[in-house]
Amino acid sequence: MRRKVLEERTRVTNALETLRHQLGLALGAARNAHSEAEAELTKLRLEQLVLSVGLDHAEDDPRLAEYRGDPAMNAVRSELEDVRSRFYSGWADGPDQLRALVASAAPGPAGRPPGEWLGKLGTFDGTRPPELWRIGEATVDASNVGREHGTTLSFDVAVPLLDESHLSITSAPKTRPTVDALVEGLLMRVLSTFAPGAVKVHLWDVGQLTAVLPNFYALSRTSAVTVHDPTRLVDLLDELAGHIRRIHAYTLQAGYPSLRAMREATGKRVEPWRIAVLYGNGEELATEHLRALKRVASGALAAGISLVLVDVPTVLGGSVETISLLDDRRAVTSMTGPNVEVRLDPALPSGQVANAASRLAEAIVTKQGGPRSFADLLPTEFGRESSARELRAPVGFHEGEPVEVVIGDATPHALIGGPSGSGKTNFLYALLGSLAARYSPDELALYLLDFKEGVSFAGLAPGKKDESWLPHARLVGVNVNTDREFGLALLRFLSDELRRRSAAAKEFEVTNIAELREQDPDGHWPRIVAVIDEFQYLFAERDSVTGMATALLEDLARRGRSQGIHLILASQDIAGIEAFWGKPAVFEQCTLRIAMPKARRVLAEGNQAAVSAPRWHAVVNHESGVAHGNQLAHIPDASSKDTFPVLQRQLWQRYATHARPRLFDGAVAPRLEDSPAFVACEPGVERPRALVGQAIEVTDNAHGVEMASAPGRNLAVMGSNTAEALAVLDAATRSLARQYEAGAVEFALGCALDSCLAEVRALADDLASCGHKADMVTADGIPSLVAEHVDRMSEQDKPRFLVLYGVDAVLPALERKEPGRPSALEHLRTLLKQGPVQELHVLGWWRGVARLKDTLGFGGTDEIGAWVALDVQGSELAAFCPGQVVHWSPRPGRALFFDRSTHASPEVTIPFHRPEVTDA
Ligand SMILES: Nc1ncnc2c1ncn2[C@@H]1O[C@H](COP(=O)(O)OP(=O)(O)OP(=O)(O)O)[C@@H](O)[C@H]1O
Questions:
Q1: 421 labelled ligand-binding
Q2: 20 to 30 Å CA-CA from 122: which of 241, 384, 509, 566?
Q3: Where ATP is bound, by residue (predicted)?
Q4: Ligand 1 neighbour 617 (Cβ under 6 A)
């Protein structure tokens, strides 16, 4: 039992001993681990301390004094030195490499010292511009890279700009001069790198109107630098957005993702680089501006546009490098990181910058070449172009390059505006000459109408001095300022042509002129260009002409594009054209805008290009007048003596077989003998027409009254203008006489006015010499002449015309009544009523409307089937034009004509000129 107890105890004692031993071991290990951890902690604390004071200062820093000589401290320092030397061992050549890199990426003015290039013109016009642009240099401690302690290494600092990146600069207090110097330096490097004209700089400063970078003042005369209105940031952003859209459209269409890619692939630069410098004031931009700015920034680089933002707080899309100024010499930039200070290059000497700017400006102006002449607009060979797709011709020059006008799908119609004397007519001549020289008359037909007083297009039709004409011209209308109806006639004509073309397109199952020409190669489908100078005359009054003109113009503007019918509307005063307001269709369809200097409202609102355009220039804009479409062009003198006529003669000789244009000259009264309708009068026509005047139409037509044997086929002339009344009756009688064989018709002329006896007698003689019976009586004979014709009414052997002059003068005599017998007036009424069906027609002249009504009595006006009103107000004519309001204010040389059987409403007619009457 006792032995058993002893064994138990020994076992327990052993177990306890083992446990004690184990615990001792564990405690020892823990103590060791603890002291190791403590040592590690001390080392880390030391490391942190050393790093916070910098390895190079550890030796002297008082915070580390207590550790001096401490082996831990020595270990920490040697470890850190080891790390640093390993880290910098790859960077020992860094500064040199950087210098080499900047030298190659920023060659010439992009990176070299200003003394080497400032004031010299750039020559670079290649496809790969410098990638970097120097702004200053940075210095690093060379001992860090294994060099001797206390030595430094410096390298050039440059930023990317064109095609590569935007730049955002943040100033520090009182550093504006430094920021200006930085921006000026960068811009000057860019401007001095490229050939003059290849870079366009836009400057906008929220706080300044004109004095942004004043050393560039000389350049602001050219397109190289534009200073924008501080209140109109939106205009600048719109302009840039417009460029981006336009450039993207054509680069993508050509299959390139960016302008740069296109340039590199084709080897051709088609656009300038654009740099927009925006100076803010550190405050947030308005939300809409910010949104627009971000939109611009994200698409800009691909369109060759870079932004330089100064104190404009925003996060831009696309790549952006930053420069933040620390003081007036130092900055940090995203190119080198926050720990490297950049010493900015000193400002360029301002006098030298100003000189360099003026030299550059001069070079740009010189590049425009001497004043170019009209001949420079013409191709070497005439008539080589096809108008199937569009019309395209240079109209002027900008900085030496031709500026073209395109009339086609995107720009079907044009609006030209400019104050009097600003060169609109000259521009039109330049355009017409340039087009006519490129396209043959089979490709281009011109309809030219000038509402101005004067004869600006008259030379394009054959004249007394020059027998030549412009073969492309189909119609030339001049002096039509009082004949708005002629404008209407042109629009109607074009509208008919539009219908004809649409019908043809439908027949060939095509939708536009280009396809129609393909499908119908033998058809004659030239593009039609209708030029209406001072077209606002069309809308001069609130009347039916304005209403119809507006409707027709709108229709032509809308549908003319696809059928190759184009309008060119020119005016001094677009602003005043009331008819446009509220009916913007025409205005909007005129996507080609030409603004002469000082033109108002031709370009989009806010586009001020026309205000600053110099004399003899025009702003050509194919983008509905939006600023990004502005192309300034110097227009050569096309209107001086012997300029256009020389071209016209050459073209006339070349296209000799083309018909002459119709000339409508509102100032010249037409002659009956020249009227094609009169010339065509010959015996044997079925229904003879009495011609009364020339119609205001595109083709040379005459107004006439068919003298059929039907009720009402009489003609009344109303008004007191003797010459015109004689002219109307003379034309009517002579034209009728030509339509009968000799002796197959009878005329009886009754002249109640002594003042007209000579003319009426002369007419009677002429009729007789044609072999016709032509009796003539004076006032006394008229009552019996009338009675005699009533008696002969039933003879019906041949047509008879009773021509009465000044019927109202013999009314008392006609009214005289003998008991039991009808008066001559009653006879006259009988003739008017019953005569026409028996081929006896009255052509009569009454000097007033009331007198005619008296003559007709209560029977109404049915017997007057056709009339010509001279100096008579429209309101008086209501009775002769039932159911209509007649708009007519008498004007010299014009009459109103209405033939109930053919007209819906009265039309203006031009009485033929009778030299022997007015010239007597
Ligand atoms: N580009 C130019 N170069 C030289 N002279 C020009 C040029 N443009 C116009 N002129 C001259 O200026 C004058 C006025 O020009 P033009 O008749 O074309 O102006 P406009 O705007 O049509 O004026 P208006 O409406 O009064 O007729 C003319 O004598 C013309 O010869």
A1: yes
A2: 241
A3: 418-425
A4: no
pLDDT at 627 over 60: yes
From residue 802, alpha-carbon distances to 691, 781, 785, 845, 916 in Å are 16, 13, 9, 11, 23
Mean local confidence (pLDDT), 584-612: 88
DSSP 561-599: GGGTEEEEEEES-GGG-GGGTT-THHHHH--EEEE-TT-
Looking at the predicted structure, is the pLDDT value of residue 630 above 80? Answer: yes
| pLDDT at 919 > cutoff 50 | no
**Is 395:633 a contact under the CB 8 Å cutoff?**
yes
Q: Put the strands of the sheet holding 152-160 in their side by side order.
A: 152-160, 132-141, 337-344, 330-333, 320-325, 166-170, 305-310, 273-279, 199-205, 225-227
What's the pTM value of the predicted model, to 2 decimals? Answer: 0.69
In whole angstroms, what is the distance from residue 660 CA to residue 655 CA?
Answer: 11
Euclidean distance between the first and final Cα of the chain, in Å? Answer: 179
Q: Which is the closest atom of ligand 1 to the Cα of 430? A: 1
Please give the torsion angle defined by the CA atoms of residues 439, 445, 449 and 450, in that order, rounded to the nearest 10 degrees.
Answer: 10
Task: Name the residue of 639, 641, 644 to mutate for ligand 1: max ligand atoms within 8 A of Cβ.
Answer: 639
- Superfamily grouping for domain 392-452+466-665: P-loop containing nucleotide triphosphate hydrolases (3.40.50.300)
- List CB contacts of 917: < 8 A, sequence separation 6 or more: 723, 726, 727, 730, 759
CA of 491 to the centre of ligand 1 (A): 27
Distance 424 CA to ligand 1 centre (A): 6
- Two tokens, residue 444: 């281009």
Mean pLDDT, the chain, whole residue set: 88
Return the pLDDT at 861. 85
User: CA angle, 672 as apex, 671 and 676 as ends, to 5°?
Assistant: 105
Which residue in 691, 699, 700, 693 sits closest to 913, CA to CA?
Answer: 693
Beta strand spans in 659-814 (E) = 662-665, 689-695, 702-706, 715-718, 746-751, 773-778, 800-805
> Cα–Cα distance between 805 and 764 in angstroms, integer?
13
Question: Which atom of ligand 1 is closest in space to residue 419's alpha carbon?
Answer: 21
Q: Give the confidence band of 920 by pLDDT, cuts at 50, 70, 90.
A: very low
User: Is residue 423 marked as binding?
Assistant: yes
Asked whether residue 419 is marked as a ligand-binding residue, the answer is: yes
Cα distance between residue 200 and residue 275, in whole Å:
6
Q: State the Cα–Cα distance between residues 542 and 6, nearest whole angstrom.
A: 139
SS3 531: strand
> How many angstroms separate the CA atoms of 602 and 612, rounded?
14
CATH code of 94-367, in short, is 3.40.50.300
Residue 58 has pLDDT above 80, yes or no: no
The residue nearest atom 16 of ligand 1, judged by CA position, is 423
Find where tokens 């970097």 sit. Answer: 132
∠512-513-517 over CA atoms, to 5°? 125
Which residue has its alpha carbon closest to ligand 1 atom 24?
A: 420
- Which among 422, 448, 430, 426 is positioned nearest to 572, based on CA atoms? 422
Atom of ligand 1 nearest to the CA of 596: 21
Residue 460 to residue 431: CA distance in whole angstroms: 14
Q: H or E segment at 200? A: strand 199-205
**CA max distance for the chain:** 193
DSSP codes joined into one string, 236-278: HHHHHHHHHHHHHHHHHHTT-SSHHHHHHHH----S-EEEEEE
Q: What percent of the chain has pLDDT over 70?
A: 96
User: Is the CB of residue 186 less than 8 Å from the CB of residue 130?
Assistant: no
Confidence of residue 819 (pLDDT cuts 50, 70, 90): confident
Q: Does the structure's ipTM exceed the value 0.90? A: yes
Identity at 82, one-letter amino acid code: D
Please report the pLDDT score of residue 87 as a whole number. Answer: 66
CATH value of 691-918 in 3.40.1160.10, 3.90.1150.200, 3.40.140.20, 3.40.50.300: 3.40.50.300
- CA pair distance 24, 35, nearest whole angstrom: 17
